[in-house]
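Record pair follows.
FIRST:
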Amino acid sequence: MLRGEPVQEFYSIGEVCALTDLKPHVLRYWESQFKLLNPAKNRSGNRVYARREVDVILLVKQLLYTEKYTIDGARQKLDEHRKTGTLRTAARAALEVQTIESLERDLTELSALLGSIAVDALTAP
């Protein structure tokens, strides 16, 4: 579940997974498909994602999962954004959309929880 806008500059793959609600194997696959996703590796050989890459990951996620682009279509859309200079704007817009969707899911879960508590209170002896 998206927890809000990332605030640090570099992230481990686990942190990126927590921020984006994606599995590590998905991120590794996307690295092979999108040239903009090329995380550096630290001395231990672990991936270190820059904030810019996290933004791109969120944009790719929106293109694939929300807008239903194919991998090729999403790649073309990213290239188009890069060439026109709108990549950062599009990535930030994707972050906003995913934050809103995350908040909506949280509110739905909270509403269901409150509803079950109310029912329990009404049926208690």
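SECOND:
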Amino acid sequence: MSVGTKGLETVELDTFEDERLVDELKKAKEELFNLRFQSATGQLESHGRLRAVKRDIARIYTVIRERELGIRATPAPVEVPAKAEKKTKKAKAADEAADAAETKEA
């Protein structure tokens, strides 16, 4: 995700964990510093980029503060499912036979 784009919305920021938000904030502040430096030396080509990065920083701060106040929910950690073991045809047939035997007993 690049900082200062129209794609950066609060809906997208809601999916980020706190650590990632802090990382994005650091990147945005670093980019703002570089843009200000370019502006001071006359090398800045896109002045609208300054405004976009400032707004992104404000969005990130808003999401962080709303999470602190309990207004906005923190996303639940995503659990990565364990890899399923590959079964041979014989093992699958044995499992199916065992399941069939259980259903007959019941």
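COMMENT: The chain has a mean pLDDT of 82.
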